[in-house]
Design goal:
4 helices, mainly alpha, 63% helix, Acyl-CoA Binding Protein
Length: 84
């Protein structure tokens, strides 16, 4: 199985975590996922009272500069550790 297939399988498996992770973990997962699937975040930051959108935007920005392959690998390691 290639990296992309492993990544997609882990993204699907992440939906079956025995316990819902905390917000910090969820945001890290989101940022890595978006970096792996979309590359660097070039979208405008949400404004107003969209606190959830702003947090997700920031989480994605924190992963900027990583290649898609680096983000996929880090996602696999990070999410995989949640199942240990």
């Amino acid at each position: 199985m290639g990296l992309n297939e492993e990544f997609l399988a882990m993204a699907e498996k992440s939906k079956t975590l025995p316990e819902k992770p905390g917000n910090d973990v969820l945001l890290k997962m989101y940022g890595l996922f978006k970096q792996a699937t979309s590359g660097d975040n070039n979208t405008p930051k949400p404004t107003g009272f969209d606190f959830k959108g702003a947090a997700k935007h920031t989480a994605w920005l924190q992963e900027s500069g990583k290649s898609k392959e680096e983000a996929m690998t880090e996602y696999l390691e990070f999410v995989g550790a949640l199942f240990d």
